[in-house]
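Ops channel
N.P.: pipeline sanity check, posting one input/output pair.
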C-alpha cells in the first residue's frame, strides 16, 4: 500500500440530474494512480476527461463512488480539500483565460499565498516554479498577457507547481500550440516526472502526444474507461480506437505498413526515435 497515491472508486456523475435519461458524464469509473507514474488520459471530445480530472481534486462531487488520496476519502465532511488542491494540482484546459495578475511573479505567487504560505516563502516557491517550467528570468516582471501562447501555458503550470503538488494533472496542455510549442511543452512535462518524480496525468485527444511520454494510457469513451494499460497494449486495439474517433500514433501505422510490405520490423514501436532506429536497422 506504500506507493498507492490516489484511488478512484466507481465514480458516477451526471450534470443534468433533473433528467433520469440524461447521459452520465462519468459512468462507473475506477482506477488507481501510483506514485511517479506518467498516465495519458485519452478520449474523444465529450468522453468525460475534463469531468474526471475535476473529481481528482474534489472540484466536482460524484453522484456515487469516491476518491481516496493516501487512504483518506476526499469527500468526507472534515477532509481538508483546500490542502488537497495543493497536493493534486490541476492545470485547466486553456488556462491562459484564467490569468489575471499584473505580473508573472504575482500570478505564480497567488496559489501558495492562497494556500496559507507566507509571502517570502511563496515568492521563493514562485521563483523556483518559474525556473522549473523553463521560463526566462526576465519574464518575471512582465505582464502574462504580453507572453506567447506557450509561455502563458508555462505560467499557468508554474502557478500550480509553486504549491508543490505530488500529482500534476494537465488538461489538454498542448491544445492550440504550434508543433514546436507542443513538443517543447511535452518535453518539459516529461522532465518534471523524470527529474522530480512528480506523478503526471496528461489529458489529450492526441495519441502522438501521450505515446512519447506516458508509461500507461487510460482510454475513455462515453464516460467509461475502455482501456487502461501500457501504451503498446492499448495500441493493439487500433480498430476499436478508430471507432471511438481516436487513432494510434503515426509511427504505429507506418511500421504496420512496412511489415505488410514485407519488411521484418517490430510493430510494437510507438515513438519517433525508436521507429527511426528500427527502420535504419532493417534497411542496413
Ligand atoms: N458544465 C457542464 N454542464 C453540462 N454538461 C456538461 C458540462 N461539462 C461537460 N458536460 C458534458 O459532459 C460530457 C463530458 O464532457 P467533458 O468532461 O468536458 O469531456 P472531455 O473533456 O472528454 O471533452 C459531455 O457530454 C459534455 O457535453
Ligand atoms: Mg475536456
Amino acid at each position: 500500500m506504500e506507493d498507492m497515491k490516489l484511488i478512484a472508486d466507481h465514480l458516477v456523475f451526471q450534470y443534468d440530474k433533473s433528467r433520469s435519461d440524461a447521459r452520465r458524464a462519468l459512468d462507473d469509473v475506477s482506477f488507481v494512480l501510483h506514485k511517479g507514474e506518467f498516465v495519458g488520459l485519452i478520449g474523444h471530445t465529450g468522453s468525460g476527461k475534463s469531468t474526471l480530472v475535476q473529481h481528482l481534486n474534489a472540484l466536482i462531487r460524484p453522484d456515487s463512488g469516491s476518491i481516496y488520496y493516501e487512504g483518506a476519502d476526499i469527500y468526507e465532511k472534515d477532509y481538508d480539500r483546500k490542502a488537497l488542491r495543493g497536493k493534486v494540482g490541476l492545470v485547466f484546459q486553456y488556462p491562459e483565460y484564467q490569468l489575471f495578475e499584473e505580473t508573472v511573479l504575482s500570478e505564480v505567487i497567488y496559489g501558495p499565498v492562497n494556500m496559507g504560505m507566507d509571502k517570502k516563502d511563496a515568492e521563493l516557491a514562485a521563483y523556483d516554479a518559474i525556473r522549473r517550467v523553463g521560463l526566462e528570468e526576465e519574464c518575471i516582471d512582465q505582464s502574462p498577457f504580453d507572453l506567447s501562447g506557450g509561455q502563458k501555458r508555462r505560467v499557468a503550470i508554474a502557478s500550480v507547481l509553486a504549491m508543490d503538488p505530488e500529482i500534476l494533472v494537465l488538461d489538454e496542455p498542448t491544445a492550440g500550440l504550434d508543433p514546436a510549442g507542443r513538443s517543447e511543452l511535452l518535453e518539459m512535462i516529461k522532465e518534471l516526472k523524470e527529474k522530480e518524480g512528480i506523478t503526471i496525468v496528461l489529458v489529450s485527444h492526441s495519441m502522438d502526444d501521450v505515446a512519447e511520454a506516458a508509461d500507461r494510457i487510460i482510454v475513455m469513451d462515453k464516460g467509461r474507461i475502455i482501456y487502461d494499460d501500457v501504451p503498446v497494449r492499448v495500441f493493439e486495439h487500433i480498430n476499436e480506437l478508430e471507432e471511438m474517433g481516436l487513432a494510434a500514433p503515426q509511427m504505429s501505422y507506418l511500421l504496420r505498413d512496412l511489415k505488410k510490405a514485407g519488411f521484418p520490423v517490430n510493430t510494437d514501436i510507438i515513438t519517433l526515435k525508436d521507429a527511426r532506429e528500427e527502420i535504419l536497422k532493417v534497411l542496413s
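N.P.: looks fine end to end. Strands lie at 4-13, 26-34, 38-43, 64-69, 72-73, 88-91, 167-171, 199-204, 216-221, 224-229.
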